[in-house]
Design goal:
heterodimer, A: alpha/beta, seven-stranded mixed beta sheet, four-stranded antiparallel beta sheet, 20 helices, disordered N terminus, B: alpha+beta, 4 strands, globular
C-alpha cells in the first residue's frame, strides 16, 4: 500500500509540475456526458456556471440550480461544469483548470452572440472555487478566462486556505481503511494529488511541494465567500446546555472558506478586489446526529448514543484552533474527530449538506442577484454605456443583433431615442429616432430584416392619391370646420396629406387676424382640415396643436410638408 | 468533498470501536467489570440533577471543567424530577452504558460514562421514536 501510495503521489507531482506541456493534448473527460450543452442562451438571462468540488460531480450542484431558479426565475441560465473524471486531482491540473476555462470562454462567447454582454457568473462549491481561480491564469489554462467575462465568483465552503482533512495522516488512513471496508469507489483515490494539495496553507504554512498555489482572480472580479459553520447543540432531557462549535463546516474551517484575501501568492490580495463574506450557521442536536448514523447503517442507535455521548462529555464549547492543530499534527483526539464526523454527517450546513441548506441557498441567490447587471431589456445597457462615454445613463429600449434603440441624452439634448450600432465590438451613435417608425430605422441604415424585428409601425405608407391640391380646396376645408374664411397663401401636398399656411381674412378679424399651419387629410376626393398650429417646433408639437390630431401614420409626412413651407 | 460522506464516519466508528473512544478510558477500563449501574447509582444521578447546585450537577453530568454551566440550566435541570431505571442498564464498551429514564411520562434513552468509578450522564435522546 505504501509503495502504491508513493507511486500515486509521484505521478500526481509529475502532472502538477508540467501543466502546460500536457495542455497541448488536453481532452476534457466527463464534459461530454454530464457537462451542460451550451445552448439556448438568451440576452435576458445571465449565464451561471455551477462548478462542483473535489471528488464530486454535477449532481451535487443540482439543489443550487433549483434554488436559483426558485429565487430568480427567468433571470438566469444555469449550466453545470462536470469534471468528475478528474475531480480527485488538484484543481490546477489542465483537465480541471484549463477545461473549465475553455468551458467558461465558450459560454461567454455564446452569451455575447445571443446579444448579451458576455459576462458569466460562477457559483462554485469547495475545490470548484479554486479551479475557477486557476482557470483565469495563463500558467494553468490554455485560454485563461479574461476578467471581462466574469461578472462575479461565488464560492461555497471553498478551502481557500486548505482543510485540516487534506494531506493529513488521518485523511490518508481514512482513504485506505474505508476503501478496505466498503470498496475503493467510496473514497477518493489514495494519495491523490487533490487530497494532498487541499492541505492547510496560510501565511505560516506552505502548500506541500508540487502543489500550485491558487492565483488571485483578476481584481475587477467580485468574490462572494459563503461559509458553513456547524455547531452541535448539547442538551440533557431537552434542556439546552451549550453549543459545541466546530469552527467550520466540519471539513473546511470558516477561516479558510472566508480566507480568499490572504490565500494567494504573496498572501496579500491585490488592492481593489471586492470581497464579501457570509457565514451560514446551523446547530444540530444529538437526536439528528444519532439518526443520521443509524440511517447510514454505520452504528446502532445505542452505539451512536454512547459514542457521541462520550465525545460530548469530553468536549466543551471551545473547539479552538488547538483542535485543528491536533488534526494537523496527527495528535488529534478521537472525541474531536468523532464530533467532526458526526457534524459532517448530520448537520444541515456541513460541507456537503450546505448545498441544500435553505439559508445558504438564499445567500447564494443574493450574491448572484448582485451580479446580474441590467437584464431588464434585451440589450445590456452597460455595454452600450461603456462604449459611449460622456453620455448620460442609457436605457435600452430594444436591441436586435448589432442595432439598438436607446434613450441616450447627450448633454444639452432633449431626452430622445437614439439608434446605436455595434461596429467591431463597439457601440456607436447612428442617428436620432424621432419617431418609432420602421422607416426611421431603415433610413438610418438598419437592414430591413432587422428593422422588422423592432416591431415599429410603418409610418409612411406609399402616398395614396389625394384630392386636387389647391388653395381653394384647402380653404373650403377650413371653412367647413371653422365657419371662418381663410386665405391659404402657402401649401404643400403629398398624396392624401397636405399642409397649408392660412390667414383669416374676415372683416371681423381684420384687426387681429388669425393665422397658422393647417394640416389636411384627403379621403373620398375631399380634404378634411385639422386646425391649426401657430408655431410648431416638432412633429409631436405640431400634431398636438391640431384639432383633431392627425392619424399616427400621417404625422411625419405632415411635419415634413410643414417644414417645406 | 466526499462522494460518500458517511464513509468517513464509518471509519471513525470503526476506529473508536476498536481502540476506545474517550480520554477517560485508561481510568475506567480497570473498573469496567466491577462498577455496575445499580439503584444506588441511579439515585445519585437523580439527586445530583435535582440538587439545583452546580457542583452537584457536575458530579453527575460529564462536562469539562472549563465549560461554563449557567445557573438557569442548573435550575431547569433541578425542576425535572428525573428517574433512571437501573434495570434497563446495558453495559457498553470502554466505560460506557445506556439506560432508560423518565421525566414525567416521557421516556428517554440516556448515555452514561464511567468516570473515576462513578457513572455520569453524557447524552440523552427521546426514546419513543
Amino acid at each position: 500500500m505504501r509503495r502504491a501510495l508513493a507511486v500515486a503521489v509521484l505521478l500526481a507531482f509529475a502532472v502538477l509540475v508540467a501543466p502546460s506541456a500536457s495542455a497541448a493534448s488536453l481532452t476534457c473527460p466527463g464534459q461530454s456526458a454530464t457537462t451542460s450543452k451550451i445552448a439556448g442562451l438568451t440576452a435576458t438571462r445571465r449565464p451561471v456556471v455551477l462548478v462542483h468540488g473535489w471528488d464530486g460531480n454535477a449532481a451535487a450542484m443540482k439543489p443550487v440550480q433549483q434554488g436559483l431558479e426558485a429565487t430568480l426565475p427567468g433571470k438566469l441560465t444555469e449550466l453545470f461544469f462536470d469534471y468528475a473524471a478528474a475531480s480527485y486531482h488538484w484543481a490546477a491540473v489542465p483537465a480541471v483548470a484549463s477545461c473549465l476555462a475553455d468551458y467558461l470562454n465558450a459560454v461567454s462567447a455564446s452569451y455575447r452572440a445571443a446579444g448579451g454582454d458576455g459576462k458569466v457568473i460562477v457559483v462554485a462549491h469547495s475545490m470548484g472555487g479554486l479551479a475557477t481561480r486557476f482557470a483565469t491564469d495563463g500558467a494553468f489554462a490554455r485560454h485563461p478566462v479574461p476578467a471581462a467575462e466574469l461578472a462575479g465568483v461565488v464560492t461555497i465552503d471553498t478551502p481557500h486556505q486548505g482543510s485540516p482533512w487534506g494531506n493529513t495522516a488521518l485523511a490518508r488512513a481514512a482513504e485506505a481503511t474505508v476503501g478496505e471496508h466498503v470498496g475503493s469507489a467510496m473514497m477518493a483515490k489514495p494519495g491523490s494529488d487533490g487530497s494532498i494539495c487541499l492541505a492547510v496553507h496560510n501565511y505560516k504554512t506552505s502548500l506541500p511541494s508540487g502543489c500550485a498555489l491558487p492565483p488571485y482572480l483578476p481584481t475587477t472580479v467580485p468574490v462572494d465567500e459563503i461559509a458553513g459553520d456547524v455547531s452541535i447543540s448539547r442538551s440533557l432531557f431537552g434542556i439546552h446546555m451549550y453549543d459545541i462549535g466546530l469552527l467550520g463546516d466540519a471539513v473546511v474551517p470558516t477561516g479558510s472558506s472566508r480566507g480568499y484575501p490572504g490565500s494567494g501568492p504573496g498572501g496579500v490580495m491585490p488592492a481593489g478586489t471586492k470581497v464579501t463574506e457570509q457565514t451560514v450557521s446551523c446547530s444540530q442536536g444529538l437526536d439528528k446526529l444519532v439518526d443520521a448514523a443509524v440511517q447510514a447503517g454505520i452504528a446502532s442507535r445505542s452505539g451512536a448514543l454512547s459514542s457521541l455521548g462520550a465525545a460530548f462529555g469530553a468536549l466543551g464549547n471551545a473547539l479552538d484552533n488547538a483542535a485543528i492543530d491536533q488534526i494537523l499534527s496527527g495528535k488529534y483526539g478521537k472525541e474531536t474527530i468523532l464530533l467532526f464526523a458526526a457534524g459532517y454527517l448530520g448537520s444541515s450546513c456541513s460541507h456537503s449538506h450546505v448545498l441544500s441548506y435553505p439559508v445558504a441557498l438564499d445567500e447564494v441567490a443574493k450574491a448572484v442577484k448582485s451580479h446580474l447587471g441590467d437584464l431588464s431589456s434585451p440589450c445590456i445597457s452597460e455595454a452600450i454605456r461603456a462604449d459611449l462615454p460622456g453620455h448620460l445613463p442609457t436605457k435600452v429600449e430594444q436591441c436586435h443583433g448589432d442595432w439598438a434603440v436607446a434613450n441616450i441624452c447627450v448633454p444639452g439634448c432633449v431626452d430622445a431615442g437614439r439608434l446605436v450600432h455595434r461596429v467591431a465590438g463597439r457601440w456607436r451613435l447612428a442617428g436620432a429616432v424621432l419617431q418609432d417608425c420602421r422607416e426611421t430605422l431603415t433610413t438610418l441604415g438598419v437592414p430591413e430584416a432587422i428593422a422588422n424585428q423592432f416591431g415599429y409601425p410603418v409610418c409612411h405608407p406609399a402616398a395614396k392619391p389625394g384630392p386636387p391640391c389647391s388653395a381653394t380646396a384647402l380653404a373650403e376645408a377650413i371653412f367647413k370646420r371653422s365657419h371662418s374664411v381663410y386665405d391659404v397663401s402657402r401649401l404643400a401636398c403629398d398624396g392624401d396629406v397636405a399642409v397649408g399656411f392660412a390667414t383669416s381674412n374676415s372683416d371681423a378679424d381684420a384687426s387681429n387676424p388669425d393665422f397658422g399651419y393647417f394640416a389636411f387629410t384627403g379621403t373620398e376626393g375631399k380634404w378634411t382640415s385639422h386646425n391649426r398650429a401657430r408655431a410648431p417646433i416638432s412633429a409631436d408639437n405640431f400634431n398636438s396643436q391640431l384639432t383633431p390630431p392627425l392619424p399616427p401614420n400621417q404625422i411625419d409626412r405632415a411635419w415634413k410638408l410643414q417644414q417645406s413651407l | 468533498m466526499l462522494r460518500r460522506p458517511w464513509a468517513g464516519v464509518l471509519l471513525i466508528f470503526v476506529v473508536l470501536g476498536a481502540t476506545g473512544c474517550t480520554s477517560h478510558r485508561s481510568k475506567s477500563a480497570e473498573a469496567e467489570g466491577a462498577v455496575r449501574f445499580d439503584a444506588a447509582a441511579a439515585a445519585v444521578l437523580s439527586k445530583g440533577l435535582g440538587s439545583g447546585d452546580e457542583a452537584q450537577v457536575r458530579k453527575v453530568v460529564a462536562v469539562p471543567t472549563s465549560q461554563v454551566l449557567s445557573p438557569a440550566v442548573v435550575a431547569r435541570l433541578a425542576a425535572l424530577r428525573v428517574t433512571v431505571d437501573p434495570a434497563s442498564f446495558v453495559l457498553g464498551k470502554n466505560g460506557t452504558g445506556t439506560a432508560k429514564a423518565k421525566v414525567g411520562a416521557t421516556e428517554w434513552d440516556v448515555a452514561l460514562i464511567l468516570v473515576d468509578r462513578s457513572w455520569k450522564l453524557s447524552a440523552t435522546t427521546l426514546a419513543t421514536r
